[in-house]
Amino acid sequence: MYHKIEERGKKKYHYIVENIRIGKGKWKKIKIYLGKEDLSKREIKVLIEKNRPKLKLKARNAKKKSDPLFSLLSDAQLRKLEEIRARYIASVSQADAQLRQNYYEGFVTEFTYDTSAIEGSSITLEETSMILFDKIAPKGRKIEEIREIENHKASFDYMLNCRGDISRDFVLKLHKLLMHNILWKYAGVFRDVQVIVRGAEFTPPEPGAVEEEFKKLMNWYRVNKRRYNPVIVAAYFHFVFESVHPFRDGNGRVGRLLLNFILRKNGYPMINIKNSDKQEYYTALKDGNKGNLKPLADLIYSYLVKARIWS
Fold first, then answer.
1. 299 in the same domain as 273
2. How does pLDDT run across 22-63, given as a tens digit for each residue?
3. What local confidence, expressed as pLDDT, does residue 60 receive?
4. Is 197 inside a domain boundary?
5. Which of 26, 32, 261, 262 could form a disulfide with 234 if both were Cys (CB 3.0 to 4.6 A apart)?
6. Mean pLDDT over residues 270-280, rounded?
7. Which are the contacts of 70, defined by CB distance < 8 A and separation ≥ 6?
8. Average pLDDT value over all residues in the chain
C-alpha cells in the first residue's frame, strides 16, 4: 500500500493504492480517494489510517473476482485464523521443556495412529504408544505393521526438525523414511507404474508424467506460498499432491505430513485428521476433483479451531 498524488490540470488528488495480481503477469491498481489540493503530512497520515481498512476490503473483493482461491475462506474465518495463530505463537513461547515434550508425545502418537488407520492399519492407539515410546512390539502384529508405525515417527521427526522449505529432495526423504524396509528400492523414489486410487473418481497421471506434474506443483508453491493464506496454500498443495499420487504407496501419509509442515512453518498448530472423519476427508478430496476446494479448506479450518493451544 502506498500514497499517490495524481495531477489533473492544476489540481492535485490524493489516493492510497494497492497493487494486486489478477493473473499471470497481470496487475491491477486498487485505490481509495483521500482528498484534493494541498494536504499536510499529518493530514495524509490520518486519512491513510482511516481508509486503510476500506482499501483492504476493496482489494480483497477484487481478488475474489479474479481468483476463486481467495473465496475459499470468509473474512470471519480469516480473522479467526489470525487469532488462532497469535494465540498459538504466544503459547509456544511460554511453554517449558516438559510441556513441549508432553505435547510432542501426545500429538505424534495420535497423528501416527490416525494417519495410519486412514490407510488401513489395524494398530490401535494404545499399541501405537507402546511401539513408539515403550519400544514394545504388540503380540500378534505383523512386523510390517510395526515398521509402518516406527517409520512414520521417523518421517514426522524429520519434518519437525526441517528448517528449510518444501523441495523435491525433502519430499523424497520423507517418503524414504516412511517406507524404509517396506517398499525397499521404491522408498524415496517416484513411482514407475500406473496406480489406481481406490474409490476415487479420477486416475492419477501416468508414471512418465509424475515428475513434470510434481514440478508444476512445486512451481505453484514457490510463486503462491505468500500470496494466499497458509490454510489455502495447505489445502491446494495437499489436494494436488494426492491427485498426482507420486509414489507407489504412502501418498496419503506423506501428503498429511506436508500439510502440517505448511501450517507449522506459518505459525499455526499442526492438525490430526481423525480416522473417524475419514469419510468427510475423502469427500473433500473428491470435491476438489470437481473444482471445489472449499470443503477441504473448511475441514482444515475446523481442525485449527479445535486445535490444542498450550497455555
1. yes
2. 776 778 899 999 988 788 888 889 999 999 999 988 888 887
3. 80
4. yes
5. 262
6. 97
7. 60, 63, 64, 228, 232
8. 93
Q: What is the pLDDT of residues 127-169, one digit of tens each?
A: 999 999 999 999 999 999 999 999 999 999 999 999 999 999 9
Residue 260 lies in a domain: yes
C-beta of residue 143 within 8 angstroms of C-beta of residue 150: no
Domain coverage including residue 129: 70-306
Q: Check residue 311 and give its pLDDT.
A: 45
Residue 141 lies in a domain: yes
**Does residue 159 sit in the same domain as residue 193?**
yes
Number of domains in the chain: 2
Indicate the residue type of 93.
S
Which residue in this structure is represented by grid cell 512451481? 219
**pLDDT cut 70: percent of the chain above it:** 99
Whether 189 and 155 map to the same domain: the answer is yes
Say if residues 80 and 305 touch (Cβ distance below 8 Å): yes
* The pTM of the whole model exceeds 0.90: no
| Closest by Cα among 202, 204, 203 to 191 | 204
Q: Judge if 216 and 288 occupy the same domain.
A: yes
Q: Which neighbouring-strand residues pair with 14? A: 5, 35
Angle between helix axes 97-118 and 251-265 (nearest 10 degrees) is 150
Q: How far lies 295's CA from each of 142, 198, 231, 264, in Å?
A: 36, 20, 12, 21
Instruction: Out of 57-61, 70-74, 226-230, pick the least confident.
Output: 57-61
Same domain, 169 and 294: yes
The dihedrals phi and psi of 23, each to the nearest 5 degrees, come to 170, 180
Q: In what order do the strands lie in the sheet with 2-8?
A: 2-8, 11-23, 26-36
Same domain, 11 and 82: no
Whether residue 178 is contained in a domain is answered as yes
